[in-house]
Amino acid sequence: MSFISEGAELRGRLAVEAQSGYDEPSLATVGDYLALLKPRVMSLVVFTAFVGLSVAPGSLHPITAFTALLCIAVGAGASGALNMWYDADIDAVMTRTARRPVPSGKVKPGEALAFGLTLSGFAVVTLGLLVNWFAGALLAFTIFFYAVVYTMWLKRATPQNIVIGGAAGAFPPMIGWAAVTGSVSFESVVLFLIIFFWTPPHFWALALYKTEDYARAGIPMLPVVAGDAATRKQILLYTLVLVPIGIVPWALGFAGMLYGATAVVTGAIMLVLGWRVLRESRPADRAARNLFAFSILYLFLLFAVLLVERGWGGLMARLAA
Questions:
Q1: Does the pTM exceed 0.85?
Q2: CA distances (Å), 291 to each of 100, 224, 232, 321, in order?
Q3: CB-based burial of residue 105 (10 Å sphere; 0-12 exposed, 13-18 middle, 19+ buried)?
Q4: What is the pLDDT of residues 62-78, one digit of tens each?
Q5: φ, ψ for residue 99 (rounded to 5)?
Q6: b/e 173-184 (16+ beta carbons within 10 angstroms → b)
Q7: Which end of the chain has fewer CB atoms < 10 Å from its terminal CB, N or C?
Q8: Of the ranges 47-61, 135-149, 153-167, 269-283, which one carries the lowest mean pLDDT score?
Q9: Taking the mean position of all CA atoms in its chain, how far away is CA 126?
Q10: Do residues 215 and 185 touch, judged by C-beta distance below 8 A?
Q11: pLDDT tens column, 150-167
């Protein structure tokens, strides 16, 4: 019997068991509910949204700016809670996620669902009423895309789940931009594209050394369906697309020399690591882990330098005005 069929049977049993817990209150702590929000993912979402808000043209009252970021953070957390509610069956099978609040029994499925829906409504309505409805609508679409399109459909249906679903993680800088301007522009689309093309090599590198975990859970990640060799090639191909897009803000005058130098140097390192993943016979031992770890630093540095170079001074001037 294959890992996938075994995972499907186990998920079915867990789903039946989970249903019995909807009407029983849990003894969850505040920490368990915070874990539902996926705080590490939320921190990246808030940071990229903050950069989008900071570099956008126009002015925003400090309280309004804080409200926008808070709503984006809550919306991201709501998406995480809805994801954990729906994915409790497969999370229980994977060693990486088995200790999450729902599969571990600390939070009941119904509570996680209610928590996610309540936070989603609060975040969207508050952002719409206190900032602007375009940003609120974009946040609502992002939550829907992650919770429904990615979690409920793409994740279990296609090895392209990360490629298409990666759009959900790429929207935050656009939402931050929209909070200031009430619209999107070419610059915000570029920020979206950087994260969008960063997502596949980042997560496929993780999937290379977690293949058995994903297979056991029945998730059709690319290494499970197409094998390691095809995944390594795709990682390098997406990295080849990502690096030039990362340089675009500098090439088109949207960012300065410091950003350009950072994008070129870190992009070169990404390409070297992607090439090592392709060439190394056992990428799970070293190369894939190195690429996964550095890709986080790569994205952080691009947005941090853009913030320092273009956004921070302008934001401080607007807040002080």
A1: yes
A2: 25, 19, 11, 43
A3: middle
A4: 999 999 999 999 999 99
A5: -90, 5
A6: bbbbbbbbbeeb
A7: N
A8: 269-283
A9: 22
A10: no
A11: 999 999 999 999 999 889
Q: Is 276 exposed, middle or buried (0-12, 13-18, 19+ CB in 10 A)?
A: middle
Among candidates 143, 123, 122, 125, which has minimal Cα distance to 133?
Answer: 125
For 92-115, what is the mean pLDDT? 91
Non-local CB neighbours of 185 within 8 Å, separated by 6+ positions = 177
Residue positions counted in the chain: 321
Q: Which residue, among 199, 208, 201, has the nearest Cα to 280 in the 3D structure?
A: 208
Dihedral (Cα; 177, 181, 186, 192), 10-degree rounding: 20
CB–CB of 307/51 below 8 Å?
yes
Kindly state the helix (H) or strand (E) to which residue 194 belongs, with its residue range.
helix 186-208
Residues 6+ apart with CB under 8 A from 120: 75, 78, 79, 82, 140, 143, 147
Q: Give the CATH H-level superfamily of domain 3-320.
A: UbiA prenyltransferase (1.10.357.140)
Q: CB neighbours of 17 closer than 8 A, spacing ≥ 6?
A: none
Question: What sign does the CA torsion over 228, 84, 146, 157 have?
Answer: positive
Tokens of 57: 């043209």
**CB-facing half-sphere around the CA of 42: CA atoms within 13 A:** 19
Domain boundaries, the chain: 3-320
Confidence grade of residue 6 (pLDDT, cut at 50, 70, 90): very low
What average pLDDT does this structure show over 118-146?
Answer: 97
The owner of tokens 């539902």 is 36
